[in-house]
Specification:
It is a single chain. The chain is an alpha/beta fold. The protein is about 30% helix and about 15% strand. The protein contains 18 helices and 17 strands. The strands form three sheets. It has a seven-stranded mixed β-sheet. It starts with a helix and ends in a 6-residue tail after the last strand.
Amino acid sequence: MRKLDMRSYWQKRASFYLGRRQPLNWFILCVIIFLVFIFLLGSYSDSFDSGDESAEPEVYSNHVTVRNQVVVDYLELRHFEPNRSKVFDLCGKERENHVPCYNVSANMMAGFKDGEELGRHCEVSKDHQFCLVRPPKDYKIPLTWPGGRDVIWSANVKLSKDQFLSSGSMTKRLMLLEENQISFSSEDETIADSVKDYSKQIAEMIGLVSDVDFRAAGVRNVLDIGCGFGSFGAHLLSLKLMAVCMAAYESTGSQVQVALERGLPAFIGDFTSRQLPLPSLSYDMVHCARCGISWNDKDGIFLIEVDRILKPGGYFVLTSPGKEQVSKGSISSPFEQFTQKLCWTHVSQREETFIWKKATDAQCFSSGRHTYPMCEGESGQSYYTPLRQCISATTSKRWIPMQNSSSFSTSPAQLALHGINPEDFAEDLELHRAALNNYWSLLSPLIFSDHPKRPGDEDPVPPYNMVRNVMDMNARYGALNTALLEAGKSVWVMNVVPLGERETLPIILDQGFAGVLLNWCEPFPTYPRTYDMLHAEGLLSHIASKKCSIVDLIFEMDRILRPEGWVIISDKVGLIEKTRSLVTKLRWEARMIDLHNGSDKCLLVCQKPFLKK
């Protein structure tokens, strides 16, 4: 009886000082005490410092951070209780081609209208489902390049035979629908003559002999708005130009989905009310062939956005019936008035194709002519930035006519325009050159085998064209892209610069690469199964610093990665260990690889399986 009284006494004392605690609170408190004890013990013991630091988890500097991190980790892990070994189920068939953040009904309920309801609104559509987006019933792994650029499996895209048969005759000229394949001819529904003839015509209209002279004239990258099914972009890629397709979200028959299935650069985007996730002075040419944009609307604000992303001296190519946009031979139409206010020069016109050239001298906007006003101050990173009725970047150091910069230079003067230290740039490139050699040798299922190789056995060399595209999810200067080109890999890279990181997207685009700005707390604007490889260096640390969910990020990676695609993650050991535990629940094959360089980082190499129903 005495013992019971004593226990009751101490329980009361504990309750007095600590308050009543729920089991979860007691659990968190115990974990905090344990971690603080380990931290204090480690700070007074030099013996831990002499060990292998790469195997140690991240140490937090104070008990408040420890407590907050414990709570975040615990709440995140609660999604997977009570059976931590359980793998995640497949999503329903309705999500086979699901693209997050595009929900017209939800956008309308939120008050969006006048076309904005069709756009991307991640702040409205927050439908987190922890399930795996399944491939379509008859999905097949895409064909390797170069054959896969012109032939795709019809079941891989949401483009039915009925849609094809009900389409116009020009579309039938574009595609040949066979039993289970779609073959792309050299005819495009938006272009009357062959793509090669059309490209040569554009070159002649800007004073060139042939389209092979585009690069020599300073045209290295092209933004193709409303690209059809990518035939024009595919031809430009064959000329060593970076042509990126951009089109609005479509639930069926998507231009972006078909272009990416062909292995061509593309992303979902529109500028109904917001600027594109691109910096000013990004592209040498912007192309629109019946792209569906009413350029005369809103006092020319869509043309102002084109002007923002065009480099000085860049070209805007518009192929459109004269009655839709421009009155032939007349400068009195609203469209022509807008181009005059932009200080554009009308270069040439042939039938339905018109070309304008952006001003090379920013003094045009202060010369007393009737022009749009210059923007006051730069808006910084263009992400969810409203369209502006003013001219951007006229005072930028990067206001250099694109004809004067036909090739990118890594000279100190060129890097200084971007505020980049030449030594930092060179070191980053050397690291990625070395890393690429290691990466490519790891792209084999043998790394997931626990059976040791026999003496003399060699790993099979992966085919050079097994990967058509790579998304570098934290691209920094685009060094991985450069290393891939130098190694002769038949691949293009979508370079993503995370919002909040250093603003390096301008130098990526100046090198003639593809790239966008993105907040990785949100999904990427693309369709499922559109990338062959994902590379994420330091991205987990970035996500953790932004207090966003690594779980959401991994599920998004699974959505955009094609079956049998590869993932390479480089980050701190503690984050890699947590991520490996998660991806195994997504049924990925995963193997941690020690870098053996004395750092606290390691690699996680994964391959997504082909999950069939």
